Amino acid sequence: MLRCRVLALLALGVLAAPLPARAAFHFSVISELLTSYGGDADVQAVEIEMLSSGQTFTENSVLAVFDATGAYVADALVVPSNIATGAAGRHWLMGTTAFETASGLQVDFEFAPALPVAGGMVCWGAPGIVPPSDPGSWAHTVPANYVDCVAYWTYTGPTTGFIGTPTPLTAEGHSLQRIFETHDNATDFACGDPADPENNADETTDLVATTACPALPTPQTKAQQGCINALNKAGAGALKARGALARSCVGAFQKGKETSGAGCIAADVKGKVGKADGKTLAAEAKSCEAGELPDFAYAGGAAVNDAAELSFGALLTAIFGADLDAALVPVATNADAAHCQAQGLAGATKLADAYMKAALKAKKSVLKAGAADADAFLTAFAGALDQGKLAAQGGKLHGQIAARCAGVDLPALFPGNCANSATVEALASCLTSNGRIQACATFFEMDALPNASCN
């Protein structure tokens, strides 16, 4: 971001006159990164490429490391002096003594091994036209204060305008080499075999990879995405149909129009659940091509319907306990209690529907953005889910419970997971949590994905 701002100022002529402004250090990027070699994590190096001439004011700039969550770890190096030669396309090199031994190449500045091997972020630079004379005068914990950063492998932390999407590649046993300058690490870096670091004296060497460059997973094709999205949409419909059936049957039982609420649900007399399940199988037949099935997030139409059935059964048990009919209060016995139960069921099932809607939208966007395997999908999905809308739906449920359930014996009415809810606020929170958890479980189980995030 800093170099983008400086480029803009130069284009306007704002920084055209003084020599330090022209011959500074901002028009540079991290061009190669090595975090280990031959199984030795002491062999580390960071190469900088100058994109313009005169980028020699490097004294007091900082090489810093961040862990895989984006948390600042430490300064690996405060650069002790300026570099000698500045020309567009020239490089300079920071590295460890173990790197010098392994490569036979003299680095321009040495640092002790500090770069994260198993994924993280490396940043270099400083704020200002030239690096401040006091390196402690600025926040080293803020990536935007640096000239450039590279986030790699297991990195899941915040990004900046010059990181974009972290590269999924490692720098272990081979280097990461810059191939583009688009401000997107996933696009800009490739696996380097051989690594070819270069110092400011224009000396270089080749280091053949000791760890093979990995084959990257391929993002799902449009056909594969279409299959996943079609089945997920049908799965949401299957869950919604079960919620509507349960609300109808519970209401009918409480009014004396059905002899068993559980029996009514099992019978599905109007066939609406069966129709919804049929739509799932039809969606699979239409949208899932035998030769191009998804590589992940796909378990088939039958699995989708089974997930909806099992998870919805678990939601009913979570609300009313193992014996639905025994838990339900007839309107003729206590109308207020019956209405409270009906409202609790309606709120929890509709919240489950809202979760599914938000989850489908998030999944569609994550797949379209290029998630290529289950791990990448799960990481991106957590950030893409619209928590605001779910919170709003939960707030709506709280208001409904407060209006319908004041003055009744709450623990007796909801003998499942919410049996300890002595206040309407506690009951609303419990029902909100259970509705969300079971919808989340449905969402992940219908694709055979781990649902550890459902809580």
Order of helices and strands: HHEEEEEHEEEEHEHHHHHHHHHH
- In one word, what is the shape? elongated
User: Helical region count?
Assistant: 14
Secondary structure tally: strands: 10
Residues in helix, %: 40-55%
Give the N-to-C terminal Cα separation.
Answer: 37 Å
Q: If you compute it from the alpha carbons, what radius of gyration comes out, rounded to the nearest whole angstrom?
A: 30 Å
Poorly predicted spans: 1-23
User: How many domains comprise the coordinates?
Assistant: 2
Strand-pairing-aware structural class: alpha+beta
> In what range is the share of β-strand residues?
5-15%
Short précis:
Helices cover 43% and strands 11% of the residues.
Task: Tell me the layout of helices and strands.
Elements: H1 2-12, H2 19-22, E1 28-34, E2 45-50, E3 62-66, E4 72-78, E5 91-95, H3 97-103, E6 109-110, E7 120-125, E8 148-152, E9 175-178, H4 185-188, E10 189-192, H5 222-254, H6 261-267, H7 272-287, H8 301-320, H9 324-327, H10 335-368, H11 374-384, H12 387-404, H13 410-413, H14 424-445
Parallel strand pairs: 5-6
Antiparallel strand pairs: 1-2, 1-9, 2-5, 3-4, 3-7, 7-8, 9-10
Features of the shown structure:
single chain; 455 residues; alpha+beta; 2 domains; six-stranded mixed beta sheet; four-stranded antiparallel beta sheet; 14 helices
Characterization of the model:
The protein is α+β, with helices and mostly antiparallel strands. Residues 1-23 have low confidence and may be disordered. A 6-stranded mixed β-sheet has the order 6-5-2-1-9-10. It contains 14 helices and 10 strands. It has helices at 2-12, 19-22, 97-103, 185-188, 222-254, 261-267, 272-287, 301-320, 324-327, 335-368, 374-384, 387-404, 410-413, 424-445; strands spanning 28-34, 45-50, 62-66, 72-78, 91-95, 109-110, 120-125, 148-152, 175-178, 189-192.
